[in-house]
Amino acid sequence: MGIEISLNYIEEKLESYLQSVYKHLHQYPELSTEEYGTQKFIESELQKLNIPYKKMADTGLCAEIRGDQPGNTILLRSDIDALPIREQTDLEYKSKKEGAMHACGHDAHITVGLGVGALLQESKAKLKGTVKIMFQPSEEVHPGGAIRMIEEGILENPKVDAAICMHTNPYLLPGQFEVKEGYMLASSDRIYISLIGKGGHAAAPHQSVDAIAMAGQFISNIQNIVARQVSPVDNAVVTIGKIQGGYTSNAIADRVDLSGTVRTIKKETQDAIEAKIEELLQSVTNFWGGSYTYKYERGYPATWNDKRMTQMAKNAGEICIGKNSMVELENPYMSGDDFVFLSSSVPSVFIYWGTGTEGKESFPWHHPKFHVNLMSLKYGVALAAQIILTFLNEEQT
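The chain above was modelled as a monomer; its predicted structure follows.
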């Protein structure tokens, strides 16, 4: 198998394997830090493929395909954790674990990792250098598993020269991919707020400090931070995702707890929004005579795609799939990922990979009806393997 990956070859040799692996993983999701069964399954598959590996970060693994010819090292990241969501699909292979679901496609990421491993291991006599396949736990829970695996040495011995990551995208069809040079994903921060008032009878609101009224005013005005105090050509999102407070219909609430997320690209915008939220909290609570607590928790930084690796991904897509397979993104996605800790360490590229179904409603990531088109698996393997071979066979400077 030369430098060009054959999609027909993957269909013939790996299609049934990929679908079998995916269906198993989808039925047995495991939450962040709890991926012991998933680890055991991956370990078993690597043993069948005669691919060396080592366990890392408790529930993760690093597989290594060592080419018979010397060369550089490239890493493929596949995250492995699921989400605490009750699946609502009608798939025959739907989750068998109540309250857990692969609603972000990490089961497909594992499948691609194993598929790439199977494809390259059988041709390692022609392979220049080393391929590391990083089966990473805990992407969904900050600070994520990537940092732990880096701390445990995944980028060393041999030293990793580049990294790639492919992520499901239900809004693209199989054979379609999205990528852009520069910022690809946003930073993902969390905010935790308590608005504290004074409880009392609903018939005498003047004798109380209504925490729900404070919360209403705060939530209504927080969007003005982005709408009126961030440049319209900048990228920023502020979302309050959870609100909890009150006791009964005829009582004034003395406390409301809020939590949400802030997504930004530029650090100066991130800093400004953090400060503006506190200014708004001070204004609202001063007006009502209440008080507040506020915690701004920095999450994953914004993810940057290396220029050379991005162009290599585009070229690889044209080679193995077709000229129109790679879509150039105009703006970054406002989601975040701990792949950033790899991309800030070595030249990297994060790619969105089409897993939707034509004519069928697409449900977003983290939705209980999220699903992956099984026909997309071969395309993920093809592109990842093509980028890897292109990188390793290029003359390195």
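The two ends are 25 Å apart (CA to CA).
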